[in-house]
Amino acid sequence: MPLVQGPLAIKVVYPPAQHLIESRDSNFIFGSIGNGRATLTINGAPAQVYPNGSFLAFVANPPPASPRYDLVAVAGNDTARSTHPVRVQDARPVLGLTGPLVVDTTSIAPRAPATSPMLLRGDERVRVTVRAPANATVWAAWPTASQWLVASGGDSLSGANFGADVPARSLRDGATLYVARGADTLRYALLRPDLLDTLSTRLVRAGDISVRPDTDRVIVGRPVPGGTYKWFFLPGTTLEMTGKMAGFTRVRLDSGLEVWIADADAVPLPSGTPLPRRVTLNARVRSAPEWVDIVIPIQGGERPAYFVDEGSRSLSVTLYGTRANTDIINYADNDTLLRTVEWKQVVDDRAELEITLRQPLYGYLVLWEDGNFVFRVRRRPTIDGRNPLRGLTIAVDPGHPPIGATGPTGLYEAIAVLPVGEKVRELLEHRGARVVMTRTTNDPVDLGLRPIIARRENANAFVSIHLNAYGDGVNPLVARNGSGTYFFHKLSEPLARPVERALVRHMGLPNLGVYYDNLAVVRPSWMPMVLTEGAFVIIPEQEAAMRTPEFQTRYAEGIVEGLEEYFRWLAKQ
Ligand SMILES: [Zn+2]
Question: Which alpha helices (H) appear in 165-311, and where do they start and end?
Fold first, then answer.
């Protein structure tokens, strides 16, 4: 790290002025003061100053009454001062055992008025909650009955969480939440959900049926409203709606499973539209030089919701709301990739395809073609074991411009990773690969577009290059940092591991391992895809290193060597 001994100039990079600090008690603050020999205090606490004049500290959040950091830098006789305004969360109310009765009104759920529609079955239960003093009595009452809320946890200062499950039907009649202690009683109106009319089916179409189903546009299904991405549906899939909550629509996939899709993806169908009946007919296998298609005609002509479970040399594809009536599956007897396709009926309205492969799973895609559910399994490319990258197409995605994470001396992630991407391109081309760059300038490229660029170019692998940071509240002076590699589909795991090992070898930072993570750029399944977080740009030493061409090259070498190792392994399978 270079020694910088310039005039004092205090510059806070993070948090930006007026940033709302997400943590409750302490947070990190970093920037530069222009002189590596100076000392610095932040709200009176000493901060660590690095030779290049950058600083990184973890300090108590300022109080809501005075939301600012006062920085004082001293070098010899020179003193510089700076005030940096931020925003902090409102203090939690004190929910004491004595004094006036207070509750945390932000904790009341479900609270009227509704911000988005709530639609439920009459007999399903809704969790009613409030945070109140531990010695309060709490109940919900509606015209015909009432129910106590039971306290859990809690202490004499911050109160306890009270909760109970109440039938949606009772809330529908108009319920009030009561919190009482001694002579004090507080009342809050609870949200009135609408109830599903169970007599008529209500169908929705997930997404736009006119979207060509061979694009990368999928409808996302989640286990809970606002939850993680778990199911991916073809646009135009017809489903039964069974509820609405917090901006999400609950849909029934079959008799045993309901999931949530965004309200915006749920297009209501005219009432009286019949619930689709889907029956699979005799399937066939269609071989092509780069893939094998399993073509399953669906009687009824409606695309099914599906789920793909990846094995290392197998796949199981669940078709929801579908009955399997497949007698014959015709396949070529000597296909190099596909070994067998079998099916079973798991429950009345759920079918499952079991596909076994002769090679490791390398990529797949689901298509809908005129009443046929098409499952396309990608063949691995032809690989020259001695020059494993020769002839392959590799997509290189230097992480998110315009800014991304920022380092203490103001290095933007997007600026820092572009030269790494350029060096990856050079090294790959030197090894005979064709390279597709998602960007070569600092103009922004839409996140969703990057993997689509890779698929349109039929890339054999995709690497997204990033620099890491921490979320508010983490102490960067003690938290682990180093290199990490992320993947989403199991088929990408054999690529993630050699890339991670090679990054650690070349960059020399601690090994944070490989992560399964639901990240947009690595979510498609047509090729192995990984995202690398080679270093932490907010750690002063690592930011300084990322400014040097030597360290950028080491990052690039790690990626390329990992790719090489993966394809060498794949060739031998
Ligand atoms: Zn990033």
Answer: 168-172
pTM: 0.90
How far away, in angstroms, is 302 Cα from ligand 1 center?
39
How remote is the CA of residue 395 from the centroid of ligand 1, in Å? 17
- Segment holding 418, helix H or strand E: helix 413-430
Q: How many angstroms does the Cα of residue 530 sit away from the middle of ligand 1?
A: 13
Backbone φ and ψ of 564, nearest 5° = -60, -45
Contact criterion met (CB below 8 Å) for 236 and 203: no
Q: Please give the C-alpha separations between residue 453 and each of 135, 396, 531, in angstroms, as whole numbers.
A: 60, 10, 16
**CA 492 to ligand 1 center in whole angstroms:** 19
* Ligand 1 center to 384 CA (angstroms): 33
Ranges under pLDDT 50 in the chain:
199
| Angular region, 159: left φ>0, alpha ψ -120 to 50, beta rest | left
Gap from CA of 213 to ligand 1 centroid (Å)? 30
Residue type, 547: R
User: Per DSSP, what are the bridge partners of residue 376?
Assistant: 293, 365
User: Coil, strand, or helix at residue 136?
Assistant: coil
Beta strands in 168-290 (DSSP E): 176-181, 184-189, 194-195, 203-206, 219-221, 231-233, 237-245, 248-254, 257-262, 266-268, 278-280, 283-287
- pLDDT tens-digit series, residues 495-510: 999 999 999 999 999 9
Centre of ligand 1 from the C-alpha of residue 532, in Å: 9
Count, residues in the chain: 573
The span from the CA of 486 to the CA of 522, in Å, is: 8
Q: Are 259 and 222 in contact (CB under 8 A)?
A: yes
Centre of ligand 1 to C-alpha 404, Å, is: 6
CA of 114 to the centre of ligand 1 (A): 36
> SS3 of 203, please?
strand
* 466, β-bridge pairs: 533
448 alpha carbon to ligand 1 midpoint, in Å?
14
Report the separation in Å between the CA atom of 307 and the middle of ligand 1, taken as the mean of its atom positions.
Answer: 29
Rounded Cα gap, residues 14 and 412, in angstroms: 12
Q: Count of alpha carbons within 13 Å of 133, Cβ hemisphere only? A: 20
Q: Hey, which bits of 325-460 come out as E strands?
A: 329-330, 338-347, 350-357, 364-369, 372-378, 393-398, 434-437
- Other Cβ atoms within 10 Å of 18 Cβ, number: 10
The number of angstroms, rounded, from the C-alpha of 447 to the middle of its chain's C-alpha atoms is 13
Question: What token pair was written down for 455?
Answer: 């698929």
Rg, Å, the chain Cα set: 29
pLDDT tens digits along 117-158: 889 999 999 999 999 999 999 999 999 999 999 999 888 888
